[in-house]
Structure formats: C-alpha cells, structure tokens
Design a protein that fits this description.
heterodimer, A: alpha+beta, 16-stranded antiparallel β-barrel
C-alpha cells in the first residue's frame, strides 16, 4: 500500500514538471506583460470615457425631454401662459314656493400671465343655463371678474378692472366644493350682497406674517326708493355703471393660525343712489367674520350691517340693513361632512313693527366624490316675521377645476 | 377722502414693500443649512416604472421632470420639489429624517394668493409627519382660508418627499436605468 502511494506521487510529480516546463515556455515576458497591462488600461479608460459621454448624452436628452414635457407641445406661446379653470352647480329645490331643477351656475375662468409680474384674471358666468330675449328664459351671461394684476413686489399687488369686492366669506371664494349648503347663505346674499363685483382699482398684500389687507376704489351702489333701498338691487355690475359717486372698500385679514381666518371689512359711499334721490345720502357697510376649520371641526360666523343716511331709507326702515349667521360643521372623513346653520337678516331693520326680519335654519350634508366634486343635501326651515315661510329641502351637485 | 385713504395706505405699506421678496431662500442655501454647511453629493432618482405610477397618484398628475435630484446623508435626505398651486409652481425644500419630515420650507412662491403657506404657523404642522399604509400623510393638516390650492400643493410635496425617501433608501438609484 505504501509502495503504491509513493509510485503515484512520483508519477504526478513527473507530469507536473513536464507541464510546468511547457507552461513556462508559453508565458509572455515581463515586457510583453507590461504592454498587455497598458493596452488594457487604455481600453478601461476608453470605456470610462464612453460611459461618461453616454451619461452626458442621456442627461442632454432628458433635459430636452423635460423641457418639452413642461411646454404645451406645438401650442402657440400665448397658450403656454394661459390657464383655464371653472366651476358649476346644479340644484334641485323642493320648497313651499315651488319645486325646480336649475343648473344655477356654469362658470369658466381664463387667466393669462403676460410676464412674471403682470397677469390677467377673468371669469365668465352663465346663470340658469339660457340667456335670451325670450321672457321664459331666466338666464344671464355675466363677466364677474376681468382685471389686470401687477406685482409691485412679490407680496404687494395692484389691480385694475372688474373684480370681486373683499367683503365676507363667500364673495371671493364661492366654488361649490368650498362651502356647505346647496344654496349660498341668505345673509351674504341679501346683506353684503354676494356675489358683488365692481369696476375700479385696488391694492392688496401682506403687512406682517399672518396679516394681510385689501383696499379698493370702485363703482358704488345705485339703489332707489322703488327697490326699498335694498342694497342687493343697487349692484350696477359694471354695465355702463353710474360713476357719480364711487365707493371705497378696505379689509384687514388675519390668518396667523392654520385653519383660522378672522377678517373685517368696511365700505363707504357718499351717495348710495348716485345723486338720483335727494332723500338718500351716504352709506357705510361694516362686516366681520370668522372662518375656522381645525381638524374635523369647522365654524363659520359672520355679521354684516349697512347704515344708510337720509330720510328716504329711514322712512321705511332701510336705513339699517343687517344680518348674521353661525354655521358649525363636522367632517367625519375627508369625504363626508355635516353642518347646521342659523341665519337671520333684515333689509328694513330700522323699522319698528314692519315684520321684515327673516330667520332660516339649515342642516345638511356634503359628500365629496373628489376634493373638487361634491354632492350636497340640506333642509331649510324658516321662521319669518309675518309667517311668510319657505320651507323644504335642497339637493345639489357642484364641481371646480 | 379717497386721496387721504390712498396716502395713508401708501405710508402703511412703504416699509413692508421694501422688505418683501418672493425667493425666501435659494435651494443651495437651504441645503447648506440642512447639512451643517456641507451638503453631500447629489444623487438622482428616476421617475420610471412603479415609481412613476405612485408619483402620479400622489400628485394627481405627472411630475414635470423625469428624474429628481436629492441629497442623502445616512437616514437623512433633502429634496427640492415643485408643484403648481393655482397657476404658478411653488418651490419647496423638504428634509426627511428616518422616514419623518424634519422640516419643510417654501423657497420660492410665485402665486399672487396663498402666500401664508410659507409661514411657520402652517409649515410646523408637517414636523414628524410620516406616510401611512395608504401612502398618505399620517395626520390632518389644517388649511388656510383662501389658500386651498397652495395648501394642497404643500401636502402633495410633503407626501412625495416621504415616498421618494422611502424608495431611495430601499434601492438607492444614482444613475440612469
């Protein structure tokens, strides 16, 4: 056994020695090895260069692709700086005054950025679908906003044109997904009066963290004795508006805590009938509101009061027109929220015993199919002086984009 | 009366106008501040494959770029992101540490409304926020009245930064696919 092992080892050694001799004969010299290494190094560097070039080429291609992605392919240059948006709402009202389905508002926004500091904002609205000379058609076509805004600085802006006045909660922000209730609340509708736009000039901006202001000089109201001096009937809507007596509006706004807005507005007009009624005089509007949404809890509260001077308004109690509402709400999920609202208003609050005060209770639910699309339902119960009540329920669908 | 009001208003605004500015911090300054003066080398995450789908779900549309640069130092990452509020892009810096938002800051605000989102009383709500199982922020963010779209943009960018931090930690992507 031992002899056999030694023989095998000897044979293996002989084979290895023979192979080693042959291998050594095939080995390149040190000089040849050095050339091979240098050649390989050159190839490695060439590959690296190629890789870097490829990376640069990919980057260049991606840069171009991203630039073209950011632009509107093939569009005119003006289109790249033009924005379109809009909102709409349809209502079903089942009330004592009657049942109806009405596509109340169809609105389109058009904005255009002339430069980084200069832009146009406009809003065209069709109310009640059809506007024509036919008396059966209830609709209107309105331009509710069309103004040019210029950035004096990034935080200070000036504007000129036709714009929404900075008063109340809903007057400037009234897209259906942003508020509870199928119909807009009656206090802002009849007292402020929302939606209220005017032609003029204005400035707005931030004066400290959380503090902002608005100030505007614009067309005034033109109400009359025939309309009981109701402020809503005095809106001129910038349609060949009488500009004998302009109005000025100022607002201060605090949003120093997330989810909280406190604001107050004041407006003055020297003659609320544009000089057409010697029995009327100047007018002041005072408005204050809170709009709070902290977590699932929400609360909106608003008070507005008009003081109209002159013996004409005083004679029928229209020298004081005021109202308020309070609206608590709770959002169970991002999709579902409920609310209740108490509204009280009177366009002849200066009168004694005229039975003109109106009270309305609302309760309902919003269901957001999408953050920008909402289904609404609410009930309304009125408790008006003189028992002229309009009770029932409302259903609605609204959207914005 | 109008003249007096205008003069008064001008005097009130004269100071703030001189101090105002729309670029509140440059991205470079934000990165230096976030990494004690020495930001790490940037890396790139490509918005392709499943990442592209998730990013579109978070934003509700495609991101305006095909890849996003980021800066990572261990468990911390910094992101410079953009999203349109109402009409113009808002540039935001976000630092994520161990899958939670350490800070979020508006660097450039170009809109004429909704500027309140840049203030700490709003941005502080995002501190320590992380993603839940549905790839959403794990907490409610209170909005700002009249700044709904700017608030929405900020929430989207915070969510995007947290998501991209997660995927780059799991599979760091430093070059093109």
């Amino acid at each position: 056994m031992k002899r056999t092992t030694c023989s095998r080892l000897g044979l293996a050694a002989a084979l290895l020695a023979g192979t080693g001799t042959a291998f050594a004969a095939d080995m390149p010299s040190a000089e040849e090895m050095w050339k091979i290494i240098q050649q390989q190094q050159r190839e490695i560097e060439a590959l690296k260069r190629g890789q870097r070039e490829n990376a640069d080429n990919v980057k260049a291609v991606v840069d171009v692709a991203e630039q073209s992605q950011q632009k509107t392919s093939g569009a005119a240059s003006w289109a790249e700086h033009t924005q379109i948006g809009g909102y709409g709402e349809m209502h079903y009202n089942n009330l004592d005054s009657g049942n109806e389905i009405d596509f109340h508002r169809f609105v389109l926004f058009f904005g255009h950025q002339f430069t980084d500091r200069l832009r146009l904002f406009s809003e065209v609205e069709i109310e009640h679908v059809i506007a024509s000379s036919d008396d059966d058609d209830k609709g209107e076509v309105e331009v509710e906003q069309a103004y040019v805004e210029y950035d004096l600085t990034p935080d200070q802006h000036a504007k000129a044109g036709l714009f929404l006045l900075p008063v109340g909660i809903l007057n400037e922000t009234h897209e259906p997904p942003t508020f509870y209730g199928v119909e807009r609340n009656p206090v802002e509708t009849y007292i402020i009066p929302t939606t209220w736009w005017a032609g003029g000039i204005g400035v707005n901006g931030e004066i400290a963290p959380g503090w902002s202001y608005d100030f505007a000089v614009h067309e005034g109201l033109d109400t009359s004795a025939g309309d009981d001096y109701a402020v809503r009937s005095g809106r001129q809507e910038t349609s060949e508006a009488d500009a004998n007596d302009l109005a000025s509006t100022a607002r201060i706004r605090w949003t120093g805590i997330a989810g909280v807005e406190l604001a107050a507005s004041i407006q003055y007009q020297q003659d609320v009938t544009q000089g057409n009624d010697p029995n009327a005089g100047d007018a002041w509007l005072y408005e204050a509101h809170a709009d709070i949404r902290r977590g699932p809890y929400g609360l909106r509260a608003l008070y507005a009061n008009w003081d109209l001077d002159g013996s004409g308004p005083k004679a029928i109690g229209a020298d004081r027109q005021e109202g308020f509402y309070i609206e608590p709400s709770y959002r169970f999920t991002p999709k579902v929220g409920i609310f209740g609202r108490y509204n009280q208003w009177d366009n002849q609050a200066g009168s004694n015993g005229n039975n003109t005060e109106k009270k309305q209770y609302n309760a309902g639910v919003n269901y957001w199919l999408h953050p920008d699309v909402v289904l609404k339902a609410d009930v309304q119960m009125q408790d008006n002086d003189g028992s002229k009540n309009d009770n029932g329920y409302n259903l609605g669908v609204g959207y914005q984009f | 009366m109008f003249k007096n009001l205008i003069i008064t208003l001008y005097l009130l605004l004269a100071g703030p106008v001189a101090l105002a500015g729309g670029t509140y911090q440059t991205p470079d300054e934000f990165l230096k501040e976030s990494f004690a003066g020495t930001p790490p080398e940037p890396a790139v995450v490509w918005l392709s494959g499943p990442r592209k789908t998730v990013v579109e779900q978070i934003l509700g549309h495609r991101y305006h770029a095909l890849r996003i640069r980021y800066w990572r130092d261990g468990a911390r990452s910094a992101w410079i992101l953009e999203e349109v509020g109402k009409e113009q892009p808002i540039t935001v810096g976000v630092v994520v540490d161990r899958a939670r938002i350490e800070r979020i800051k508006v660097l450039v605000f170009r809109e004429s409304r909704g500027w309140e989102v840049r203030h700490p009383f709003f941005t502080d709500q995002f501190k320590e926020a992380r993603l839940n199982d549905k790839q959403q922020l794990d907490r409610h963010i209170d909005g700002i009245s009249g700044a709904t779209l700017s608030v929405r943009a900020m929430k989207k960018l915070a969510t995007l930064a947290l998501y991209l931090d997660t995927v780059t930690r799991e599979q760091d992507v430093t070059s093109a696919p």
